[in-house]
């Protein structure tokens, strides 16, 4: 009888907790569950990020240039964050915005959309097992795409989680060790090397590879 009452009591407590969870809290918990499935035990810094709530967005819609808002008219903006984009050729760093809507991801420069990735065509998302904020968005090989997108995000766990949830492609996120390949365009591939050092830095090595420390 005692064991039965304990089970009933626990079920009642769980029921009360679930009924008391707000819609905002539920979304937060769902995102954290997905982040745990992707990063727990795989990427450095994840444990320290657990108690940090995900933000709805890092920038408001008003922070996006009106011309860009006109170009993506009809698509509800779900998340905006500043990023640093690295050119596929030469790896020059450029400040950009990553805008996530209900159906696509946009890499934005001021009033221009530099690249659009429809979630339906998204091939994968890669990041390293180290504490860097690099994420590579893999796109299909077609004339509409210039190649894979290399970004550096300050809030890597939050950004990747929101991206893969909006695209409904959690299973396509890979946490790699050592190196990863990315498509430059026209059938060419590049290599990114991840290593450990005393100071974080990202640079083009003498062999032409992008090195992330």
UniProtKB/TrEMBL annotation:
One of its GO terms (molecular function) is cytoskeletal motor activity. Pfam families: Myosin_TH1. PROSITE patterns: TH1. Residues 43-213 form the TH1 domain. InterPro entries: Myosin_TH1 (IPR010926). GO terms for cellular component: myosin complex. It comes from the Eukaryota. This is Unconventional myosin-Ih. It comes from Struthio camelus australis. The lineage of its organism: Eukaryota, Metazoa, Chordata, Craniata, Vertebrata.
């Amino acid at each position: 009888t005692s064991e039965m009452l304990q089970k009933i009591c626990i079920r009642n407590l769980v029921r009360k907790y679930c009924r008391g969870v707000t819609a905002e809290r539920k979304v937060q918990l769902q995102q954290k569950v997905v982040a745990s499935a992707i990063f727990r035990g795989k990427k450095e810094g994840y444990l320290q990020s657990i108690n940090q709530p995900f933000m709805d967005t890092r920038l408001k819609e008003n922070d996006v240039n009106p011309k860009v808002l006109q170009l993506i008219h009809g698509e509800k903006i779900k998340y905006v964050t500043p990023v640093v984009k690295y050119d596929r050729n030469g790896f020059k760093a450029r400040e950009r915005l990553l805008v996530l809507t209900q159906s696509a991801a946009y890499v934005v420069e001021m009033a221009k959309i530099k690249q659009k990735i429809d979630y339906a065509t998204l091939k994968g998302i890669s990041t390293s097992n180290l504490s860097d904020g690099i994420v590579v968005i893999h796109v299909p090989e077609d004339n509409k795409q210039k190649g894979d997108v290399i970004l550096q995000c300050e809030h890597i766990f939050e950004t990747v989680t929101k991206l893969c949830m909006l695209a409904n492609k959690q299973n396509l996120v890979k946490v790699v060790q050592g190196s990863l390949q990315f498509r430059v365009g026209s059938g060419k591939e590049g290599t990114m090397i991840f290593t450990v050092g005393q100071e974080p830095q990202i640079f083009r090595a003498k062999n032409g590879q992008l090195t992330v420390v």
